Amino acid sequence: MQKAAAKRQKKRAKLILPAVAISVISAVLLLTWLVLFHQGEGKNKMQLSRLVVGPLQVNCYIVYDEKTKEAVVIDPGDDGQEILGLVTGKGLKVKYIVNTHAHFDHVGANKLLKDATGAELLVHEGDSALLGATTSQARMFGMTANSSPKADRYVKHGDVVTVGAVKLTVLHTPGHSAGGISLKGDGVVFTGDALFAGSIGRTDLMGGDLMTLITSIKTNLMALPDDTVVLSGHGPQSTIGDERRENPFLNARSGF
Predict the structure, then answer these.
(1) What is the CA radius of gyration of the chain?
(2) What is the pLDDT of residue 40?
(3) How far from chain centre, in Å, is Cα 88?
(4) Type and span of the H or E element at 233
(5) What are the extents of the domains in the chain?
(6) Average pLDDT of 103-124?
(7) pLDDT of residue 44
(8) What's the sign of the alpha-carbon dihedral 250, 100, 124, 108?
(9) pTM reported for the whole predicted model
(10) Topology of 44-246 in CATH?
(11) Cβ atoms within 10 Å, residue 54
């Protein structure tokens, strides 16, 4: 009986050892693939700088491809020389200026930046009237603002803004203004004043509508993965998952 048991043990060992070896090899190959995948991913990873500009503390984002140095500036609301200094210091070629919407605090440095770089100015057509009325907008708040050039091109939902290997997809997110847009990149979304950490944009200004904003956020932003980083027009960053769970205008307790 002992000899028979020994034979069975040897037989099991012959079967188990190759299986273990295959598992180890598979694990090594998988690990190698993951390393190579992330290394490759890193080569085309979006590069990002943020400046907080103007008296209303707007988040201005400079998004660029590290290899080509092509860049897009999102919402240059003020402090144009500071934005230009960062762009020049990094040796960037600004291809586009994109306004997520045309309220005066998001467009104040459009002209300076466009004149200095020759970049195309992109905005949604729904905000074309606002873009031409920056000074009157500012007066409503007892402030002054620089006028903006007209848009070189109107963007619409589904358009793609490309700088080098970086692609930003336009999502129409009206409600804060009629032509409000967000820009979806790889694992990140720039939401302008549509969605904030723990809140949403105000809807009592020209072109604003609460239910339009709620609907556009739920349709075009809440459809993104939970780990998508939310970079808004004011305040700190968040994630889609956090906003889905905690935002009082969007979570299950909101009533909307």
Answers:
(1) 25
(2) 37
(3) 22
(4) none
(5) 1-43, 44-246
(6) 98
(7) 52
(8) positive
(9) 0.83
(10) Metallo-beta-lactamase; Chain A (3.60.15)
(11) 20
